[in-house]
């Protein structure tokens, strides 16, 4: 069986993540291909798409949100993701059990003794008037019935797990701020979410495997589970295994992939890329060593924005008064520094509508 070393996996990841070459894809096609963008920080998806698309206009993504073609909701790993409306409808029910389990993992004591079916029915009754609500608002409306639960626990369970909702604009629009206001997913999109599969079949799980590998492969089954948070995908993998090809990594672990997916030559040059906080190019794997050193692994879950140099995390970045400030994690060559500055200037101009192209690199 062919062994893929870390550099081969790195280049495959960059290609699948649209980070090896800027893509000509539209914003909605990119969101679809990437299986969504992690988006608990509302402005970060704009940088994520800017880093990947050749001619990205942030107004395009804002329009997609307003037009209800993409939505913000709790999905993979119980984190807020920006996904296409079609994927939200198709995937939400498949994530239902995982979302409940993860909320209970945090608030089990607060929610002890509460019948979740009863809580769901009460929440849907409140939301039937069509008015958007925040988590604290719906929790306060139900607090009299469950006074011991606490508003945070009730709100999280209702809107992050029990009731499929979306976070409404202006939250998530370019350069706009807004609190989280939730509406029923079915009402916002004007269509019901797809029901759970019956008779033991798992077509949604099978499609999730294919879509994950297209955007993240080659990858292990553990990587797949880390990305989506779903425990029940081994059966889906087994059902489509004949469609897949297998490799090994340098530790002997099996890597699954789609047969015709890009696996570039490991020697392919990789350009400097600035990634937003919580980018799934890093978080979409259990073993993130293909793109970030183990000693820096914590940066990805701490919300640090990072810079890829030769395909790997080599620096963090922030913005202060229009200036992109880069803090290297290792020594950068003169060529690397030049490329970081050049790309940083483009980022500064993007973030400031051309009013700034200032970049600093810490010593």
**Tertiary shape:** globular
Topology as a string of helices (H) and strands (E): HHEHHEEHHHHHEEHHHHEEEHHEEEHE
Q: Number of DSSP helices?
A: 16
Unreliable runs: none
Distance between the termini: 45 Å
Structure description:
The chain is built from 16 helices and 12 strands. It has 363 residues and is of the alpha+beta class. Among the domains are: 93-163, no CATH class; 273-361, no CATH class. The strands form 4 sheets. The protein has a 5-stranded mixed beta sheet with strand order 8-9-10-11-12, covered by helices on one side. It has a 3-stranded antiparallel beta sheet with strand order 1-3-2. Strand 9 and strand 10 (312-320) form a beta hairpin. The radius of gyration is 21 Å and the shape is globular. It starts with 5 loop residues before the first helix and ends with a strand.
Question: How are the SSEs ordered, and which strands pair?
Answer:
Elements: H1 6-16, H2 27-33, E1 37-38, H3 44-50, H4 58-66, E2 70-74, E3 80-84, H5 85-91, H6 96-107, H7 116-127, H8 135-142, H9 151-162, E4 165-167, E5 182-184, H10 185-189, H11 203-216, H12 221-228, H13 234-240, E6 245-248, E7 254-257, E8 273-275, H14 280-283, H15 298-301, E9 305-309, E10 312-320, E11 323-328, H16 334-351, E12 359-361
Parallel strand pairs: 11-12
Antiparallel strand pairs: 1-3, 2-3, 4-5, 6-7, 8-9, 9-10, 10-11
């Amino acid at each position: 069986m062919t062994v893929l070393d870390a550099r081969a996996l790195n280049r495959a990841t960059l290609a699948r993540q649209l980070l090896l070459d800027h893509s000509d894809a539209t914003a909605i096609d990119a969101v679809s291909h990437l299986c969504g963008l992690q988006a608990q920080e509302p402005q970060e998806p704009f940088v994520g798409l800017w880093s990947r698309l050749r001619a990205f206009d942030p107004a395009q993504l804002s329009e997609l949100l307003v037009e209800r073609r993409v939505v913000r909701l709790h999905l993979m790993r119980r984190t807020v993701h920006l996904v296409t409306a079609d994927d939200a409808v198709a995937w939400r029910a498949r994530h239902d059990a995982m979302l409940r389990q993860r909320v209970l993992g945090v608030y089990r004591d607060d929610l002890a003794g509460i019948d979740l079916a009863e809580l769901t029915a009460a929440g849907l009754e409140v939301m039937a008037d069509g008015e958007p609500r925040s988590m604290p608002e719906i929790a306060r409306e139900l607090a009299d019935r469950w006074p011991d639960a606490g508003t945070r626990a009730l709100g999280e369970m209702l809107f992050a797990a029990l009731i499929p909702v979306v976070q409404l604009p202006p939250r998530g629009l370019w350069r706009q701020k807004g609190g989280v206001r939730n509406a029923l997913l079915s009402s916002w999109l004007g269509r019901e979410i797809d029901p759970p599969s019956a008779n033991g079949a798992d077509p949604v799980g099978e499609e999730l495997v294919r879509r994950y590998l297209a955007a993240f492969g080659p990858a292990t089954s553990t990587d797949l589970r880390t990305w989506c948070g779903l425990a029940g995908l081994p059966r889906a993998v087994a059902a489509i295994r004949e469609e897949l090809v297998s490799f090994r990594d340098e530790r002997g672990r099996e890597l699954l992939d789609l047969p015709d997916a890009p696996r570039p030559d490991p020697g392919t040059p990789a350009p400097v890329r600035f990634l937003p906080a919580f980018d799934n190019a890093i978080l979409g794997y259990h073993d993130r060593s293909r793109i970030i050193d183990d000693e820096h692994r914590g940066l990805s879950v701490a919300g640090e924005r990072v810079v890829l140099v030769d395909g790997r995390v080599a620096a963090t970045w922030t913005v202060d008064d229009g200036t992109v400030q880069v803090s290297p994690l290792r020594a950068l060559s003169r060529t690397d520094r030049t490329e970081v500055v050049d790309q940083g200037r483009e980022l500064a101009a993007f973030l400031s509508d051309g009013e700034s192209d200032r970049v600093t690199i810490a010593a």
